[in-house]
Amino acid sequence: MAQAKTSAARHVPRSSGSRDAGVLGTSVRIRGKISGEGDLQILGSVEGDVVVRGDLMIGESASIESENLEAQAVTIQGEVKGDVNASGPVRLGRTARVHGDLKGSEISIEEGAQFAGRIEADFELPASLGKR
Amino acid sequence: MASTVIGANITIEGEVIADEDVVVQGTVRGKLSAKDGVTVESGAVVEADVSGGPMTLAGQVTGNVTSTDRVELQSGARVVGNVKAARITIADGAHFKGNVDMDV
Hints:
The structure holds two protein chains of two kinds.
Chain A: H1 2-11, E1 22-24, E2 29-36, E3 40-42, E4 45-47, E5 50-52, E6 56-58, E7 63-71, E8 74-76, E9 79-86, E10 90-92, E11 97-99, E12 102-104, E13 107-109, E14 114-116, E15 119-121, H2 127-130
Parallel strand pairs in A: 1-3, 2-4, 2-5, 3-6, 4-7, 5-7, 6-8, 7-9, 8-10, 9-11, 9-12, 10-13, 11-14, 12-15
Chain B: E1 4-6, E2 10-18, E3 22-24, E4 27-34, E5 38-40, E6 45-52, E7 55-57, E8 60-62, E9 65-67, E10 70-73, E11 78-80, E12 83-84, E13 87-90, E14 95-97, E15 100-101
Parallel strand pairs in B: 1-3, 2-4, 3-5, 4-6, 5-7, 6-8, 6-9, 7-10, 8-11, 9-12, 10-13, 11-14, 12-15
């Protein structure tokens, strides 16, 4: 038993990252559906739907082809083909290349980002404008 | 340091292919192939054929496991499937059902 314990301590790397965060590295390719409660960072390539409760970060090296990307806050620095459906803000960084519709509480597109699609954002107009 | 971590609350249904280390804390259904090490942590559920380099299994794995190096079943691991590897260790307290092929 003591032996099993020492080997467990040696081999299970409990890295400093919190347990509910996920990172899909640059060399990772996923074909299928990804779902989850926590935050997710994608640096590799994904073909399929991504539905997470937390925030989604799509890195510069990432390439995603998806019918549906659903998350809270979404930050895109990489390539996305497909619709983004966020309950929080959507941010397109300067290296983002996005082909699809964006939906979120706020949408921001930085200079340099490439984007083709529709934008749908729910926001309240100031009272003076709303009256018209 | 592993660059891919499938977190505890993440579920992947489909095929995962990686050229680097993969740490699974959540759920993977389908297929998991890595060029390098695979770690299935305690609490993780893998219902997939797993292939890769050195493997450390402490969670639940249902599927065939193929490693170019060694496979370590740690205490608390629950593995149902065949294991093919050059070296294998099964710790006291690990559950295992399947065949072992060490390619003798």
